[in-house]
Amino acid sequence: MNNFTKAQFWVLVILRVIIGWHFLYEGLVKFANPNWSSVSYLADSEGLFRSLFHFMASSPDIVNIVDVLNIWGLIAIGIGLITGTFSRVALSGGILLLGFYYLSHPPFVGLKYSMPMEGSYLIINKVLIEMVAMMVLFLFPTSQEAGIDHFIFSRKIN
Amino acid sequence: MKNLDSDHKITTDAEKRGLSRRDVLKGLVTVPVLGAFAYGWYKKNKYDRWLRKATQDEINKNMIDPVVGKKVSKDKQIRLGIIGTGGRGRALLQAAGFIEPETIDNWIRKTGKFRPNIPFRDYLEQEDLNVVVNGMCDVFDIHAEKGMNACANINREASGGKMGNRPKRYNTYQELLASDDIDAVIIATPDHWHATMTIAAARAGKHVYCEKPMTNSIPEVYEVVKAVKKSNIVYQLGHQNRQIESFQKAKQIIKNGVLGKVNLIEVTTNRNDPNGAWIYPIHKDAGRHNIDWEQFLGPAPHHEFSLERFFRWRCWWDYATGLSGDLFTHEYDSMNQILDLGIPHSAVASGGNYFYKDGRTTPDVLQMVFEYPNKELSLVYSASLASNWDRGRVIMGHDGFIEVGSNLQVYADTGSTKYKEKIENNIIDPSQPIYSFTPGLQQVDAISSATARYFASRGLLFTYKDGKRVNTAHLHIKEWLDCIRGGGKPSCNIDLGFEEAITAHMGTLAYRENRKVIWDAEKNEVVPAG
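Predict the joint structure of the above. Result:
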């Protein structure tokens, strides 16, 4: 057993599962909507990296790649976190994705977006909070006990 | 590291013990969450489908994809002539496949070497219409030179590329029309020349693509219609909005009765920059020596040479009809396309020169109201050249309204009789579109339309057709050429041009004479009221 108390352990598992749920649903919604494309999100980018995201939006080929990576990345990360399969890989991928989302629309003073926001944010938004939560999960793993990783990693050592 | 170590320890312990039943259960403990997720997903989708069906049954009834033009063989090359190669003329040449090399130079300069040059790539993908420009004329040498450079650029090259033959420059449009190596002409001159040139072209048997408005006065309208109908030419008026898919969708939606009884249409123009107010730049090298002023004046009243009048002709009644001819005609034609309005029974107008004090005679703020008693609706046009408050185009009915631009949104009305029950049962939310359409997207999208609205209002959505960005003027010219080759009537033919011209002139007349004017359908003429 690791050093977590029971409560600590299960709260971490719940955090992992609900973040996974969120990713999986975001991915499936995009997958199920044939009209979804990241193009408007990318084109709406502001801040330090806006030219990078605008450049991505300007090319239909790049947009296609971004769309596919986004949809399947979200779905894979979601399933990985819920079932605890290759959790650390899933968490790294998720942190990277959220990092991109955050940098494309940083809630900094003076930046304005046409994308409506559902809350009020200054520098910190929910994307950043979810990203840091995933960092916590990365540092305090639970999937090797409550997750498919339990079987994967025991076999590996065998 | 500490945790990793403890993980290893757990695994090794498990190995030693073998996987106990408890371990297996714990390892799988979160897997049932996937089942719960799947159930939730199923329920949510079922609800969304039901909601969509409930709101869109009416709209989707008889909804068909816009008619795709029949394929016409392009084997026969069409030989064009162009009269007027100023800004608009060169834009039409570009849409027909002849671009100024400098335009490509600019695109390349703007994007640099290492970024994909989207406008250039899209332009290279524009369909080849199998046309050649054999003749051109323009009364300003510099515009003529630019026009000839564009016409010669048959391979769509940047400066220094391999050019084709330059077209012959004629001194007058009469000489151009007399030439037997020209089948069809594009007329992109100031408005006061449109009628005279169209009539001459029709008599010479040349097909005509004429920029809007069709004429500069009411008597000219009848003469143009007579000349075109007497000839066998294909006439297309330059309202390229005829090619916008969302207008075709709007027409179907209204036909299906989604809006209930349509009673008011509001179309608007808002601009707030010198270019939008026709204060076009005066070329630094322009002067008496390279402008044929007498030919520019043509049928217009005599006036001494004036660079302002030459470059900014839209500001004077002598050469144009201001907001009415330049911008209302597009708005009217869009609505005529959607609602088959025809000519109104009456028109009143008011406005004035409230902002630009530059000697212009046409107004910079204008309101025109047209009544259609037979259709029981009013058409209102409101324009300002000194405010950018964008009011769009709205078609209002008792049960709903449509906002139509390059995309389209349909809303249920809060006071609707038809949707009353659905609104009360929260099936329809009047603050959200019940139908939204963005050209280029494969299907309609009702769920994510709130954000689509934001993006569309900022113009952030690209317009694609079959994955390519398209130029509506290109489609409009192509349609004209298809009709020349394969027969049929173009979408903005002479009959629709007649309706456009009479309606716009009724508004202009009402403004200039400051009284109500009536369309006497029996006599086929415009008369003062009462």
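The longest strand of chain B covers residues 262-270.
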